[in-house]
Amino acid sequence: MSNSMTQRAVQEAVEWGLSNGLAFKSSAAVATQVPFSFTPSVIEQARFERIRHSSPVLAKLIHAISEDTAFLIQAIEPVADGDPFFRALLAMEKQLADAPRLPVLMMRSDFMDDQVRGPQLIEFNGIAAGMGPFGQRIHQLHQYLSQQWSEAFGDWLSAHQGPLVANRAITGLADGIALASHQIKREHADEGPVRFLMVVQENEDNVYDQHLLEQALHRRGIQSVRRSFDDLSHALSTGAGQRLMLDGVGSIDFVYLRAGYQYQDYVSPSDSEQDCCEKLALTRMQIERHRVAVNATVSQQLATSKRVQTLLAAMPIDCFSRFGLDIDEAKLVKAVLGDIRPVTLANINWFQAQRSSDWVLKNQREGGGHCLFDEAILPRLQSLSVADYPSWALMRRIQPVPRPSAALVVRQARTQVVDDLISEIGIFTVHVNGVPATEDNGYAGYLIRSKSAKATEGGVHSGVGVLDSLAFALESVMTESTQTDVDTDA
């Protein structure tokens, strides 16, 4: 295949992506291409199914934890002592123990497929777990390339690639939201329009992913409204039956937080820092004190923290019965939780003695840029106070197998060849008050982000990672559910 033909295929792929919402907002009137791989990553079907089937069990576990206020308080208090943000979240949780909101857990569980141990959980994402729509769109882009530019596409395929793995993330997420929204609407005997409120960050650049979800809701007859915490701080009120009301709009059935996972989301440019943070935190609590579907609740945010993940990794299998898991479910969870060690004086001394590069040091923050590797770990450990220990954890590094052949990635319409591409697999699940909200036991699609194995951070926003999709290995046994890929939200 000539280089000119590949470049034509790449240019059309970029144009297809921009035409179908695969974009970041650069300014008020400018969008830029989201980086992506030209061809999908390959996974054995058995490994993918292991990840897919374990994720609803993880969601079942997280829901039960989020409803166990005593466990959450005991788990988070040590972190709250040294972390103002978690101290504020815990204070909110204690005041919301009997809140009437309908909890909707729209979670993304992120995995990597370790060479030896198989799929291992990296982290839970229970608040602002976005980019599901991007996951479906990049899958559809690879479908387009395989049909429209089959020769150029084939030049970069792995020799072991079989069929693409179906991805209906937009449909799965939208169906879950619609289910919960209509439940609230029926409870209030409200004949007006169903309304969905998305709480967003100011000057967000990842708006197209959000709009793809909103468009799917519009096709289901659901109206959408976008507001920041600052906007809502003076615009919410209470209607009959603890109905959440938004000034100028009316009743709200579902609140989806794409903000609130970091301290700066509660900072208002119009107020003093202390006053504004208290005001915006009160706004979040005000939402949950109404009969409205909510993702994510404060308890869900705490339940999906790395602190809880660390405690679960150390928990004996028989203790999972507290959260409603049977022995088989507990074994499934333990197999993917990985090796996580709390930061203690003993573990600091252990790490200093062995100086292994097999570990990563993580704090409680969400998003990229909060992990330390290799020579950066020990100095940070030695600088921590005892009060800081619960906010950090040592996690064994996952060593996935890179693609067996070089991959072509596309960034700003320019190509780059990467010879060691590895992938992070995010699995979406949706549960309404603990009950699966999709036809596939709560499973709602996937998100693949790939990067060079040499890169420690893999975020697509950071410019290091790229969007990707999955194909089964050629020797995998196909099933009817994986062959079919018909979607009304395409």
From TrEMBL:
Pathway the protein contributes to: Sulfur metabolism; glutathione biosynthesis; glutathione from L-cysteine and L-glutamate: step 2/2
Any Pfam family matching the protein: GSH_synthase
Domain Glutathione synthase substrate-binding intervals: 196-303
Needed cofactors: Mg(2+)
UniProt keyword Hydrolase, yes or no: no
InterPro entries in UniProt: Glutathione_synthase, Glutathione_synthase_a-hlx, Glutathione_synthase_C_euk, Glutathione_synthase_N_euk, GSH-S_sub-bd_sf, GSH_synth_subst-bd, PreATP-grasp_dom_sf
GO-annotated cellular components: cytosol
Lineage: superkingdom: Bacteria
UniProt GO MF annotations: ATP binding; glutathione binding; glutathione synthase activity; metal ion binding
Presence of the UniProt keyword Acetylation in the record: no
Keywords tagged on the record: ATP-binding, Glutathione biosynthesis, Ligase, Magnesium, Metal-binding, Nucleotide-binding
Family as reported in the entry's similarity comment: Belongs to the eukaryotic GSH synthase family.
Protein name, as recorded: glutathione synthase
Organism: Ferrimonas aestuarii
